[in-house]
């Protein structure tokens, strides 16, 4: 098997990642086949297998690709003040999602549920989660360092924010209800506002 | 098919629910068969099918049974002060879980991931979630009414606490890491402590 980072031409890699995303939207994760992805990419299944031995290899590469996209999005906002970045990040995950985002989240939940039975998924999902934790902790740390936030533990605060967002997103996928909006507002009131409100009084 | 509540003898119902729980621990959800549950119950598969037409019917009844168990547990603690009940509830879901609880959570995550494709699971999971939301909101409301907590919105606060707990539990199942402990401490620091600490000053 070829490693996607070293031997797949960048354009082919981008094409296949885009096709994987669309195939996950259309078919979900459990029912997804290499043929579905080949159809979306308008490539032959054998070409797909030239790059990736198995569906698992391809999906691990796809999860890795999501980190790269996350890094690009993070870089676009790095000049914003920490309080604004954190609020935008929370809103982005909870109230700015559209139907396509939720369809993708549905497929990702299926993949997550498979991770306890599949070390390759588990290990890559752990790398993705570590990227998110570092990203949010960096924002909180920047806010603390700038004196905008109270002197909280950046890592623990990031993990609370992410857990609440993850839980709300999962509830939305499973129950199709208004949890993201409700949890967004409660997270702002109970966690984000108090990070800044008491900054001068508490320090 | 017989309705479990009206025509299954209570002992048989309890036996089958216990067998379903053990079969989920051993096999997970996706791989679970009626035969696995019959084996655990030491009953014939045809007897199981007499009570429940399908695996789906049985698992919906099992989810309903979890609400009954939740009610029993809630009743045991209803004389405790609200602040203590809330802390115990959060600790119960995050730091008091053992290996068996996490194996069960792994099977439940698989079932949750199936809900977007299965209305019967989705509707029953919504009833289970509503029970939990009402339960936690009742505790917060009791704390507000008693003057122990600040004047927060009980429902929104409950949903934030549950989302953070659900997210942390899912991360634990998927990644097998220390998220429940970290999120427990951060939830106490950022959400639970401030519910009480400022009660006198703020009201």
Structure description:
The structure is a homodimer. Chain A is mainly alpha-helical and about 200 residues long. Chain A contains eleven helices and no strands. The termini of chain A are far apart. The N terminus of chain A is likely disordered. Chains A and B meet through helix 7, helix 8, helix 9 and helix 10 of A and helix 7, helix 8, helix 9 and helix 10 of B.
Q: Using a beta-carbon cutoff below 8 angstroms, give the protein chain pair with the largest interface and the number of residues from each chain.
A: A-B, 44 and 44 residues
The multimeric state of the shown protein is homodimer
* CATH topology annotation of the largest domain in chain A: Tetracycline Repressor, domain 2
Mean pLDDT of chain A: 92
Q: Catalogue the unreliable spans of chain A.
A: 1-6
- Could you say which overall geometry of chain A the principal axes of the C-alpha atoms support? elongated
Q: How many angstroms separate the termini of chain A?
A: 56 Å
Reading off the top of the CATH hierarchy, the class of the largest domain in chain A is best stated as Mainly Alpha
CATH architecture of the largest domain in chain A: Orthogonal Bundle
Helix/strand structural class of chain A: mainly alpha
> How would you characterize the largest beta sheet of chain A?
none
């Amino acid at each position: 098997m070829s490693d996607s980072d070293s031997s797949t031409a960048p354009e082919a890699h981008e094409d296949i990642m885009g096709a994987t995303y669309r195939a996950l939207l259309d078919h979900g994760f459990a029912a997804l086949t290499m043929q579905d992805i080949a159809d979306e990419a308008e490539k032959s299944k054998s070409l797909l297998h030239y790059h990736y031995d198995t569906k698992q290899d391809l999906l691990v590469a796809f999860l890795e690709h999501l980190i790269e996209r996350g890094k690009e999005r993070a870089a676009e906002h790095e000049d914003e003040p920490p309080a604004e970045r954190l609020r935008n990040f929370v809103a982005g995950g909870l109230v700015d999602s559209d139907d396509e985002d939720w369809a993708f989240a549905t497929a990702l939940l299926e993949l997550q549920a498979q991770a306890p039975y599949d070390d390759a998924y588990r290990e890559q999902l752990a790398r993705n989660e570590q990227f998110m934790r570092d990203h949010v902790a960096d924002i909180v740390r920047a806010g603390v360092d700038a004196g905008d936030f109270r002197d909280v533990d950046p890592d623990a605060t990031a993990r609370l924010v992410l857990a609440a967002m993850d839980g709300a997103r999962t509830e939305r996928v499973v129950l199709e209800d208004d949890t993201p909006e409700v949890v967004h507002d409660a997270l702002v009131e109970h966690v984000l506002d108090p990070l800044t409100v008491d900054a001068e009084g508490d320090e």
